[in-house]
Amino acid sequence: MSFFTTLFKSYNYGLNHGMIDKNDDNTYLILPLYHNSMKSNGKNIIEIKLDKASNLLEAYFLKSDEIVIFPVTEDSVSRSSGVSPHPLFDNFDYLVKDNNKKSLSYLDGISGWLNYENIDFVRIFYNFINRDKAFDEILTKLYGDYKIKNQKIIEYIDKSSGNGKKSNADFSKIYLSYKIENYDGLRDVSITENKTLHKKYIDYVNYILKNDKDTPKITCNISGEKDYLCLKHKPLLGSAKLISQITANNENFYGRFTDPSQTIKIGKNTSQKIMQMAKALLDCKNTSRWLGGMTYAISWFSDDIQNESNLDLTKNIKLVNKVSKNNFLNKNIKFEVHPDNNTGFKFADEISENIVKSFTNGKILFSDNSSYYFAVVDKISNGRVSVRYFNEIKSSELIVNLKKWQENYHWFGYSNDNGQFNYTPGLRRFIFAAYGTERDGKLEIDKDSFSTSQFSNIMAAVVEGRQMPQNIIKALEINIRNRQKYNNAWNEIELCTLAALRNKEEIDNNMLDRKKLDRSYLYGRLLALYELIEANTYSNDDARITNAEKLWSSFINNPVTINFRLRTLVMPYRFKLKADEKKRKLCENIDNEITTVSNLISDNYGDKDPSYNKPLGPGFIFGYEGQKNYIEYLNYKKSIEIDKEN
């Protein structure tokens, strides 16, 4: 299905399951047709309370994050200039009765609705707002003392500041909502809460359309239903539209059609359903992810349109599995001995379920037969929203693809609580590790448009079950060669590179592989050993960068030449390490490893080998990591033996 068809059908799913106009906790709101919503910031929306005789009882600013749902017209929802009032809820530029065009148009609009149907909820408000002194009554309730300056600027005493300071408020930008006291028995009812009013307004709009001879009836190209042709579509992000007004500019159809009537025909009700569904998905934290700038990823299921499973492709993934006590663990962790019951790590139905749960909040509320929808939308200008990417796949296929991603792109960690686990960094971490510049200990990307483009590509790869984009792989391969460029961010670069390249380099775990004779892997082992010799002569107080770290890039580019140099540079540290009785065994272990690795290189890659002094490949980082883990494991094993003796 197309993106628009998917949105249309998802809205209908919401209709059939009682999810439209359901505003219980403000977390997920699908608006009814021909309605909009606005969130209060504590200063932009005033609510008044009226009794059934249209008398003003209270006036106050709505608290921050409270939402108002209100009816709109096709013109008012996208107004930028001119006169286009909302039917009830609007700013005081329209509400103040001063006989200007906006005020007259606003009152005429309500009057026309009442002439169609005498709705007491609307009539009560109309009788109040039509009074000459309605604005003054509201200001008196709000401030007590006030002064109307030019236009609708109000000067008042700000009592909240405690010092009675004079302040100004521009009421042309402040909106007015209302509620009626004891409207439903003893319950006060507001515009937002009056769902019967919402339905009555939709009926009124359909009545207007039916009697408007200038609005042609067509067969909608998306719904296949008879509907009224929509020329002005509701904006999605600010004033930017997902569907352009096809007749607004000739460039919208020139080159493809000779006349705008030849373009796609979308009905008004269909357009409303599409836009209301898109807005709901963008506004909900479960279905929307900000990618940077004005770019958003939205995702949902055909049978879980709220994404209550909270499936999030950007999460860091941690899967626990049982390991043997002989496993060589990661270097930046605390070691523990585990029971000798290694079961390995095999993907089975239970593991697949755990993977999916790790991408969610632990609940799987979608079925295997459902469809998963994923889109990236981008506000490319003040008037236009583009769909950068859209895909629909079966949920069963998505589960396979999520499993594939986790299996291909994870590294190994350890915790006291869970033991060893497989860890997949979040997608944003891969991107920032590949293209970020370290500033103040953090990785940053200067250009939002670039990072959002990369984010779109990598998320699409996850959804479609593809490999990680090669440009990200290549960038990580370059970064891992340049350790001197990073300080605090180095561990992040290393983790993401290990996870991204593990499958490509055919690495099964973080243990030292003594059977692996790859040249880059062997030299990586040497680099780790040189670093360990020097690092273990320092205490925590005088620790500093080692020669191996300083010559990291040079070693990778000229391994044979720099190998000889490093061996000479670390010799004083070797003597110091060997002289320390507590570390003598460590020095012997490192010496033995250096001899073993050097012999393997000599036997397999002599001076006549074509690759004798060529730069190392990215596989060196796995030899480096495995060798460090092995030496640290030996240290740990020795400490356990000493503890037992004592």
UniProtKB/TrEMBL annotation:
This is CRISPR-associated protein Csd1. It comes from the Bacteria.
